[in-house]
Amino acid sequence: MSTVRKSLCVALSIALLAAPALAEKPKKAKYVFLFIGDGMSIAQVSAAEIYAKSMAGAEPGFQKLGFTQFPAQGLTTTYDSSSIITDSASAVTAIATGNKTLSGVINMDPGKTKRYKTIAEYAKEMGWRVGVVTTVSLDHATPAGFYAKVPSRGDMYDIACQLSASGFDFFGGGGFCQPTGKKGDQEDAIALAAKRGYTVVKTAAELKALKPAAGLKVIAFNETLQDSMAMPYEIDRAKEDLALADYVDKGIELLDNKNGFFFAVESGKIDWACHANDAAASIGDTLAFDRAIARAVEFQKKHPNDTLIIVTGDHETGGMSIGFAGTKYSTFFEKVAMQKGSYIAFDERILAPYKKLKGAGGGNVADLIAPMKEWFGVDYAALDEPSRELVDRAFKRSMKGEVERATQESVYNLYGGYEPLTVTLTHLANQAAGIGWTTYSHTGVPVPTYALGAGQSLFDGYYDNTDLFRKLVAVMGIRVAEEKAK
User: Fold this and answer.
1) Would you call 171 helix, strand, or coil by DSSP?
2) What's the pTM?
3) Strand runs labelled E in 368-446
4) Is 231 in contact with 224 (CB distance < 8 Å)?
5) CA 57, CA 471: separation in Å to the nearest integer?
6) Contacts within 8 Å (CB) and 24+ apart, 20-27
7) Alpha-helical runs (H) found in 217-278
8) In the CATH scheme, what is the code of domain 31-317+441-476?
9) Are 318 and 275 in contact (CB under 8 A)?
10) Tens of pLDDT along the chain (486 residues)?
11) In angstroms, rounded to a whole number, what is the distance separating the alpha carbons of residues 60 and 249?
């Protein structure tokens, strides 16, 4: 045998050994959890693990999260039909239906004429109960990807109406961004849901009081909502407010039945924090995500032969890096703990009232020196001259209201359309910890996928996000029938 042929044979043998056993008939699951960390890739997971280890006061290292110890682990590509860099709408379409589409489109083809059936809809047809929970608004792209079909993710009123038309059993988390349409002149989508037989609850006490009952369908809006009808960041959450783990607990209680259930859970504000380059908020929500997944693991231990838990991301956001030029080979993740709240909470509680008090173009940066240090751990007096100049310039732009007018490329690169002062402070806080960013948008790097339970081995390997749908179909025993164009 020639050297070339020997090399080819060795390479083929290695490839076969590395590939997941797709030809095997997987063990069927009837309880399926799909957890999606929006904007979460290796950097976000690693940042949370490094932070957890640093808080333990130990030597540098990683304190493993629960889901990163799952026995099956893969790497998933995320490109969509027109771009290497996807958005959440096209990414969730790929995961939920196995089809690529354009960014902004939910469960329709790139021509926006054909509608795709989702994995959740197939589960419902099989007699399973279905739940969808998210930390962002329920009409946002990722949760909508399991029940809605729209040419634009911006059609949020249509999405909200399709939510209650789905007949799914449990929705929980954020609110609706457009409950009465963009102009506020349409039938209230919440009232419509009640007409369709949904029990709508808006307080923690109401949610906790719910008990499983035949035919019960629930929409649970979080009692405290922050930006864009989303649940608060974990770093901002009051102790009495519900966490994502509480919604998973209640979802399991209401969905559990002998036929089976499909439960999609999104931690959506990991993405929002990374858009704003706020590492502390991202880390907080990633750790809360892990705690929510732990509730599913508790269920899996009681039903080990019938339960599958998948954890993945839809894409990476922010180009987060563990390492910054200014700290060279060092990281100081304990400094992340110095941040007392998210960027949006600082805007709402500190900067907005100050701007209102001082008026456009007024004020003095010295007035905010104490809040900067208390909130972000940024000591203005200790900054070098270039860093102080960045803060001074950003302060002036914020006080002039130059947030959404950041149209020049150089200005966008500095602030990304966020409050100039706030995002400058998060950058300085992150850099001091040894964390860097490349963008305020998404990136095209693959995301990790983790699996535990029935059929877990299918999720080993390197594959596309559309393959997640096909693997779930195999594990759930679904017969896929393509929908006709509508």
Assistant:
1) strand
2) 0.93
3) 435-436, 442-443
4) yes
5) 41
6) 20/74, 20/457, 20/458, 20/459, 20/460, 20/461, 20/463, 21/457, 21/458, 22/458, 24/457, 24/458, 26/454, 26/455, 26/457, 26/458, 26/471, 26/474, 26/475, 27/305, 27/454, 27/455, 27/475
7) 244-255, 269-275
8) 3.40.720.10
9) yes
10) 444 344 434 333 433 334 444 455 778 999 999 999 999 999 999 999 999 999 998 688 999 999 999 999 999 999 999 999 999 999 999 999 999 999 999 999 999 999 999 999 999 999 999 999 999 999 999 999 999 999 999 999 999 999 999 999 999 999 999 999 999 999 999 999 999 999 999 999 999 999 999 999 999 999 999 999 999 999 999 999 999 999 999 999 999 999 999 999 999 999 999 999 999 999 999 999 999 999 999 999 999 999 999 999 999 999 999 999 999 999 999 999 999 999 999 999 999 999 999 999 999 999 999 999 999 999 999 999 999 999 999 999 999 987 655 567 788 999 999 999 999 999 999 999 999 999 999 999 999 999 999 999 999 999 999 999 999 999 999 998 755 444
11) 34
CA distance 167 to 82: 32
Pairing of strands 321-322, 435-436: antiparallel
> What are the extents of the domains in the chain?
31-317+441-476, 321-436
For residues 100 and 302, give the distance between their C-alpha atoms in angstroms, rounded to a whole number: 36
SS3 state of residue 115: strand
Of 404, 407, 401, the residue nearest 352 (C-alpha): 401
Look at residues 96, 441, 46, 38 and name the one whose alpha carbon lies nearest to residue 267: 38
